[in-house]
Amino acid sequence: KDQPVLRNVSFRVNPGETVALVGPTGSGKTSSMALAHRFYEVWDGAVLVGGHDVRDLTQDSLGRQVAMVLQEPFLFTGTVIENIRYHKADATKEEVVRAAEAVGAHDFIMKLPEGYDTRIEQRGGNLSLGQRQLISFARALVADARILILDEATANINSYTEMLIQKALVRLLEGRTGMVIAHRLATIRN
After folding, report:
1. Residue 39: what are its φ and ψ, rounded to 5°?
2. Would you place residue 187 in the very low, low, confident or very high pLDDT band (cuts 50, 70, 90)?
3. Cα 47 from Cα 33, distance rounded (Å)
């Protein structure tokens, strides 16, 4: 409590607007986003989401409104379709396929041994980082959250996969409030 990570930070992201935070490692970009999702408690000042102080909201209610795509996406042991449905277990197969198509993941998924029913090893060990990232983008699209946080979502992937993800970003951010954390300006150019 007596060692603040952020000092004198104030910004507003309006509904439907996308804001990028760019800066060196350790400058507080990820901490800012973690506060919005209430991964850290707010000691001083306030973090408001939809006009509500996050301290008055549960992580569950925030989780329904905020989707995150991280630099190292977390996939759990289970099928591809279960991983994409993670935030919305009742999503139909058609919704999952549409999301995968929209983010450029459908083609590689269909090439997997059992397509959408292929089992993913622990932490996605049987998929490339780019494939794991595309699945996490499809997951965010299926979740249909109003706020999308992208934390270095294209940092560790090749240029071809980044091109697919850049196209996916346009689709993902449509009509949503976006907060993008990046080191590379190419990630936020558009």
Report:
1. -75, -25
2. low
3. 10
